[in-house]
Amino acid sequence: MAASPLASWAAPESSASAASIPRLDLRRLDTGPAEREAFLAELRDAARDVGFFHLVGHRIPAAEIAEVQALARRFFALPLPEKQAVAMVRSPHFRGYTAAGREITRGAPDWREQFDVGAEREALAQTAASPPWSRLQGPNQWPVGLPELRVGLLRLQEAVTQLGIRLLRAFALALGQPEDVFAPIYQGAPNQHIKIIRYPGREATQGEQGVGAHKDSGFLTLLVQDGQSGLEVEGRDGWIAAEPVEGSFVVNIGELLELASNGYLRATIHRVVTPPAGRDRLSVAFFLGARHDATVPLLDLPPDLAAEARGPASDPDNPLFHEVGRNYLKGRLRSHPDVAARFYGDLAETGGA
Q1: Does residue 251 register a pLDDT over 50?
Q2: Please, are residues 320 and 215 in contact by the beta-carbon 8 Å criterion?
Q3: Is this prediction's pTM over 0.85?
Q4: Over the stretch 38-78, which tens digit does the pLDDT of each residue have?
Q5: What are phi and psi of 113, to 5 degrees?
Q6: Fewer CB within 10 Å: N-end or C-end of the chain?
Q7: DSSP readout, 61-92?
């Protein structure tokens, strides 16, 4: 399949559902008090009513994003042995390559291949008293045959981290909080997680599940799509297609903001449907979370917002924990049972991580 960077991006023929996902321009934060307040109100409403929005005006150069998309295509085109040399099952930190069908969502395989990267930090020394989530910190794996991938992914990860923090500060203001209310739980070592993903066409899969229905576990997710549709968001009346919008990030909130806002904001369930036969789909996803050793605070919302907070959603198959590391590890263990079996077999149960 040929690469499809932003420079050659083309909108899909059918984009009737695009208007269902709001579009917000981040530049409005800097255009005066009235426009700033209007933007914050729209940000709050978008996150509460739909849970997803297209973010434009983010100032990350299109060329930088296109470079990572091209590098992703080159990585997925590598011979399988080169990709397997950096397989995630080799990493207790859940970093590296996962073949299509090897990640699990809600008990079924996801038909996508992907490469996961986090912050480059040294692994923490382990003792008998170390919490299991402390094993998550550690170095990345990198393919020997594509050294440029390390440079491109880490550069984009840093840029999107700063963008995510700016958005997080805007969310704090939109919830009637001090702008830096979340800083104590991410400063120093935010959970940074970027992945490149390729969804093969339906002729190469055993089903339509590119990714099964799920929520994200962190603060925010920022996603770059190519021109192929597939991302769908659960709405009140069914699934809403998040059609690609040129130059935008698709943004959604995760479970940390749902917990902190006592359910005023909701981490929306979403999925990806595999592309039609003869097509593939490429995406670059970034997940911003709190430090693993942090505990999610319960915000003191203004009375009008507090009255509409419904409490975090309760799912007996996916309990939410205020302990950040425990909540994140829970998701990793469920999604990657091969890594769990190899490095976390001493845990009594994955849900109690």
Answers
A1: yes
A2: no
A3: yes
A4: 999 999 999 998 889 999 999 999 999 999 999 999 999 99
A5: -105, 150
A6: N
A7: -HHHHHHHHHHHHHHHTS-HHHHHTTBGGG-T
Mean per-residue pLDDT for 287-304? 95
- Which pLDDT belongs to residue 318? 59
Element (H, E) at 249: strand 249-253
CA torsion 306-271-328-74 (nearest 10°) is -140
- Mean pLDDT, rounded, for 121-143: 95
Contact between 52 and 250 (Cβ < 8 Å): yes
Measure the CA–CA gap between 278 and 214, rounded to whole angstroms. Answer: 27
Q: How far is the C-alpha of 290 from the C-alpha of 292, rounded, in Å?
A: 6
Q: How many CA atoms lie within 13 A of 146 on its CB side?
A: 23
Q: Are 113 and 122 in contact (CB under 8 A)?
A: no
Helix (H/G/I), strand (E/B), else coil: 233: strand
Give dist(CA 347, CA 156) in Å, integer: 34
Rounded to the nearest 10 degrees, the angle between the axes of helix 33-49 and helix 148-174 is 100
Collect all residues with Cβ–Cβ distance below 8 Å to 275 and sequence separation of at least 6. Answer: 199, 200, 201, 202, 210, 228, 230, 281
The whole-angstrom separation of Cα 353 and Cα 351 is: 6
Structure tokens at 188: 């120093």
Query: What are the distances in angstroms from CA 323 to CA 119, 125, 171, 264, 327?
Result: 20, 20, 21, 19, 6
Sign of CA dihedral 221, 288, 149, 209: negative
Spell out the alpha helix ranges (H) of the chain.
Answer: 33-49, 62-76, 80-84, 148-174, 183-186, 255-260, 303-306, 324-335, 337-343
DSSP string, 279-292: --EEEEEEEEE--T
